[in-house]
Amino acid sequence: MRLRRTIIALLTALSFMFAVCQLSSASDDAPEMPPELRRILYIASYSGSYGWSSSVRSGFCSALRDELPREQLSFDVVELDTFENGLLTPSNERISLLRNQLNDERYDLIVCADNPAADLFLDNKLHMPADTPLVFCGYNGTPGDPRLLASGSGTYGILMPDNIFANIQLGLRLLPMTNTVVVITDGGADGISQSRRLNDELRLLRKVNIVQLRGDRMSTEEMLQTLSEMPRDTFAVYANW
Fold first, then answer.
1. Per-residue model confidence (pLDDT) at position 148
2. What is the pTM for the complete model shown?
3. Which residues of 140-159 are buried (b: 16+ CB within 10 A; e: fewer)?
C-alpha cells in the first residue's frame, strides 16, 4: 500500500507539471525583478488524517518545491472532509465557503485531489476563475467522459488506473472454480465512478456471476449481510470501501 501511494504521488507530480511551467515562466523572463509569490489553492476531498489524501498532498508539495523556491510559494488548503461528515459528498456549507473564497482571492493554480473535489468544477457547482489552470489528481473516471472533454485547455490531470477488472481476472486465474465474484465500492463519488466504469468491462465476463455491492445503494450492515450469504465458491474485491 505504501509503494502504491508513492507511485500515485509521482503520477500526481506529472499531472501538474504543465501548470508549473506556467507558474515559473514569468520569473524566467524577468530574472532581475523580485520573485513573484505564486498562490496555490489545494482542495482535498478528504481529511489530512486519511493516509491516501496526505500522501497525494505530500507528493504535490514535493514536486512543486523542486520547481520553485519555497519563498515563492503560498499554499491555501481546503479539506472537504467527505468521509467525516457522513454524507460522502461535500456539504453545502463547505461549497458555499469555497465559492466565497474563489470570489475573494486570486490564485495562480487550483488543485483538486480525488473525485469529490474535482466534480465540483466538472459538474459546474463551482466555476474556475478566468485564466487560472486547474489540476485534478487521484480521479476515477474514463477518458471519454464528456465533462473532461469539455473542461477546456486550462485543465490538466491524470486518471486513476483501473485495476478492479484486472484483479477480477487475476482472482479467476488463481481460483478457477469460482462461480461468483463480489465487487464492493463505497457510496462516494469515487466508488460511484468505479462502478460505472466497471459495468462496461463486466460484459466481457460471461462465465461467472458478478454481484456489485454499492455503498450508494446499501448500508454497511446490508453489504456485510449480503456478503456473509454468498456461496463458498465466491471471492470479493474490495475496491475502495
1. 74
2. 0.72
3. bbeeebeebeebeebbbbbb
